[in-house]
Amino acid sequence: MKHITDDLAFAAARVPIAAAIAAAKLAGRGDEKAADQAAVDAMRTALNSMHMKGRIVIGEGERDEAPMLYIGEEVGNGQGPELDIALDPLEGTTLTAKAMANACAVIAFAPRGGLLHAPDTYMDKLAIGPGYEEGVVDLDAPADENARRLAKAKGVKVEDLGVCVLDRPRHGDIIAALRKAGCRVHLITDGDVAGVINCTKAETGIDMYVGQGGAPEGVLAAAALKCVGGQFQGRLVFRNDDERARAERTGVTDFKRRYFLNELVKDDAMFLATGVTHGSLLDGVRVENGIAHTHTLILNAATRTVSEVRVKQPV
After folding, report:
1. Which element (helix H / strand E) includes 33?
2. What's the pLDDT score for residue 2?
3. Separation between Cα atoms, residue 155 and residue 122, nearest integer Å
4. Which residues partner with 128 through β-bridges?
5. CB atoms within 10 A of CB 245
6. Cα distances (angstroms) measured from residue 100 to each of 24, 29, 104, 292
7. How far is CA 25 from the centre of its chain?
8. CB 190: neighbour CB atoms within 10 A?
9. Stretch 138-167: mean pLDDT, rounded?
10. DSSP letters for 190-205
11. Which is the most buried residue in 27, 38, 98, 114, by most CB within 10 A?
12. Rounded to the nearest 5°, which phi and psi values hold at 267?
């Protein structure tokens, strides 16, 4: 789409950069809420300075739950392209509070109607990076079988495959099966958007992401994979009637539907992530002599470009 240009992508980089710098100031302080609020405030201010008619479709929650960056909020200067926005101003609030690795500020843009309005529920997820035929992995197949399929498609032994899984009790069987198959299992404590994004770059050593996490984060991750030609499958998971009601309010009628990448992200998108704390994919914010050094990944599906930007700015 003509809306998603490289110029727009680079202009948008200041949004996650602002959020990352604000959150990084509170890294290691032990206050998750303060770090998250700082990131929200900074991201909202930066979004409102952008030349666009933006609408939040995945944000901090419903309007009555979140005073800023809530679902449905209009952002931007009211001029320019009409864009839908999915965001997480601080992916990894606990990671930031404890100064642990892989916290980042993430945001995705697409032309209006281009991003699925995912309900705030869980989602079973399966993701792989670019370069494979469609259907090489299957959400309904066991994780170890998918690992074997992917290893065969990649032309390597299953022992050479890296699989990222969120370290939760609910994933015990998945982790055990992958290890029995011989995979290297990379466990993460938080931040499954970052976990999925690792599939986009070979140097991370992660070939596949599998497990259950937040559905809104699934759309954000799918936007990143869309930009590089990766694959993603997901299915909503409901724990109670309230979550089913939330899904119905967003237009979900088939509770067992399997969503593929192009259903979650229906149009060209751009995805941006700035490191807050140092991680496997992005360097964290570093401040020296009053200058903040930041590292941002910019992915653009429209132009199939992958860029990394390092910015220095006074703080």
Report:
1. helix 32-48
2. 56
3. 33
4. 208, 231
5. 11
6. 11, 11, 11, 19
7. 22
8. 19
9. 98
10. S-HHHHHHGGG-GGG-
11. 114
12. -135, 175
Distance in angstroms (rounded) separating the CA atoms of residues 261 and 277 = 28
CA 231 to chain centroid, in Å, comes to 14
The first and second tokens of residue 142, run together, are 């066991």
Burial of 108 (0-12, 13-18, 19+ CB in 10 A): buried
Tell me how far apart the alpha carbons of residues 84 and 264 are, in angstroms, rounded to a whole number: 13
Tell me which residue has tokens 């997901």. Answer: 234
Asked if the model's pLDDT at residue 109 lies above 50, the reply is yes
- Percentage of the chain with pLDDT > 90? 84
Domains of the chain with bracketed CATH? 6-115+269-314 (3.30.540.10), 122-264 (3.40.190.90)
Long-range contacts of 140-143 (CB under 8 A, 24+ apart): 140/258, 142/177, 143/174, 143/177, 143/178, 143/210
Q: Three-state SS for 220?
A: helix
Predicted local distance difference test score (pLDDT) of residue 1: 45
C-alpha span between 80 and 51 (Å, rounded): 6
The pLDDT value given to residue 9: 87
